[in-house]
Amino acid sequence: xxxxLEARPRLAPGCRLRDSAGQPRVLLMPExxxxxxxxxxxxxxxxxxxxxxxEIVAELQARYAKAKPQxxxxxxxxxxxxLHDQRAVDFE
Amino acid sequence: xSSTTPSPLALVAEVTHRCPLHCVYCSNPLELTSRERELPTxxxxxxxxxxxxxxxxxVDFTGGEPLARPDLADLICTARGAGLYTNLITSGRPLDEKxxxxxxxxxxxxxxxxxxxxxxxMANEFAGARAHKEKLQVAGWVKKQRIALTxxxxxxxxxxxxxDEMIALTEKIGPGRVEFAHVQYxxxxxxxxxxxxxxxxxxxxxxEILKRAEERLKGRIRVEYVVPDYYAKYPKACMGGWGRKxxxxxxxxxxLPCHAAKILxxxxxxxxxxxxxxxxxxxxxxxxxxxxxxxxxxPCRSCDRRTQDFGGCRCQAFxxxxxxxxxxxxxxxxxxxxxxxAILAEVNAATPIAAAPKTEWLYRPNPA
Lengths: 92, 368
Known about the structure:
The structure holds 2 protein chains of 2 kinds.
Chain A: E1 9-11, E2 16-17, E3 26-29, E4 32-35, H1 38-45, H2 53-63, H3 69-85, E5 89-91
Antiparallel strand pairs in A: 1-5, 2-3, 3-4
Helix pairs in contact in A: 2-3
Chain B: E1 10-14, H1 41-54, E2 58-62, H2 72-81, E3 85-90, H3 97-106, E4 110-115, H4 120-127, H5 132-143, E5 148-155, H6 163-173, E6 177-182, H7 187-191, H8 193-196, H9 200-216, E7 222-225, E8 246-249, E9 255-256, H10 277-283, H11 285-289, H12 306-309, H13 314-321, H14 337-349
Helix pairs in contact in B: 1-2, 2-3
């Protein structure tokens, strides 16, 4: 499900980033572990129930200023939809 | 050796064989470990820290019934402190809300609650215990906590026709995830197989129902299921491959590549009381025996699928054709597939069992 821009994504119960310094960042969830890097990590780190999708898009557009803003937005919406379908993220 | 041996990703911690249920398809071995021989708290603590250092991401606390151990919250706390994701695989008894609070506070991430059926009478029959009502109550308590909840329905010939009711019960409870796990034929399930193996018609109907449910519940409840492997064209990648992803520790501390490995002849298992988990994982005979491809026979040896299914299940090969290095006989390419086909022919020829008398089950007992 593609989220609305005003939705606030939040990691679902039982889903969390592994908190071990110096090791690859991994999103842990029931029976699964996703290795995250670059943009995927930056998106997941902002799934805190406080940032809106619009804010996440704006922050990453600023960070990846060389990429087309429209493409950054589409990628973020697609990735959040994927995480939602896997029950890793709730839209609040 | 150590540089080429992959790290395990998950540790299955069978912390006890004691259990208030007596399920007719229990995956525990026929010879159960007694309470006196169980590893003490500090030994488990050391093993959990060693597992995290070895690269393990997730630990499954299972049994028997892990809640039977009074130190379960301590073990969860140690595991979480070492950086592991903690799963509790449980019948939900014995438990009250206060103890659940303690487990969550200790760092429990994921509560996986087993169900034997949607109807109380049947569930209690398969479990050999009156447990179903309490499970419903436990599910309600877990829902109030901010942890993941999975319902795990064990399905087989006698309850497969009530799949719609199980899905309805799942929706009523509202977990993040549900597993419909076909019985796997090892241990107690192998002993009860003729009563548990579904018919082809049942299976086909059930797969349609599950596909529809998966689509309909997408984004709300993650629905997962697999085809029972006797009916599959290719074998399952048992444990993700022998000694590749998963290590299992028995209640007394023996380290096994899978739940049933102790039935295999000629294998000896090392114990975490005598050697580090890393050394056992990398060097023990049991883990090296079927790791990689050197042990494979034809048709596996030259098969393109050998890197996907790793030759299937060693225990199944031994149980069905008496050779633990044979191609898993459920594989359509196996020269011994006829053994599986004969079992299926018998199941599919039989008149449907309406309600087999309860006394015909072989129930799993509780160890001393």
